[in-house]
Amino acid sequence: MCNRARYAGEPADLFGSAKKLFPERPRDNRFDPRELRPKSRAYVIREQDGERAWDIMSWDVLGGQAAWPMTNVRNLAAPQWRKLAADPANRCLIPLTEFCEWTPDKHDLGDGKPKLKGEMWFTVVDQPVFAVAGFWQTTVEGNGFAMVTCDPNTLVVPIHPKAMITILRPEDCDVWLRGSYDEVVQLQAPYPAEQMKVRGPEFPTRRRG
Q: How many percent of the chain have pLDDT more than 90?
C-alpha cells in the first residue's frame, strides 16, 4: 500500500476496547491521528494485563533502524516477524476509516504542468470504522507498529496489484489479539471486494482544468 490512511475519530468502545488510553495523549500540535503517514503517530488498540484499550504509536515498527520506515509487513513466516506475530502481547488493531493507493499511471490534468498520479481512497461498506491487523514492538524511538498486508482483492488489484492491508471482520478481532500464530495467519486474507468502495482519482495538490 502507499502508506496513506485516515482515522476520522477518537478513542471509543470499538472492537471490544475500553474508551481509554494506556499512555497520556500527546499535547504537541504535530500529533494528528486523522492523517496516517510513515513515522507519524496513530491510535492503535492492544491488550495489556487482560485489558483492551488504546495506545499511541509511530507507524514504523523498526523505529528508524532501516533505510525507510517499516510500515507494512507481509511475510509473517520470516523469523523477525514471526517472533512478533506469534506473541499476542505484540499484536494490535489499527482502526481506520479509509486507506489510499496511488494510480498506476500519471494523469495529464490539462493545466500545462507535469503529469502526476492520483489518490484512490478505499472504504469498507459494512464497517465505517474497520480494524487492520498489525503488530508492534518497543524501539529506540518508542513503540512502533506495522500493518499486515495480504493478497489484493479484485477492487484493489487494478490500482495496487501487489498487496492490500489485512482488514478484519469484527468477529475476528478477538482471534487476532488472542489467538495462536496458526490462527492469525489464517486471517491474512483479502477483504471481500463487494463490501468495499473506491473513489478517485483525487489530486489534492492540483485542480483539474
A: 86
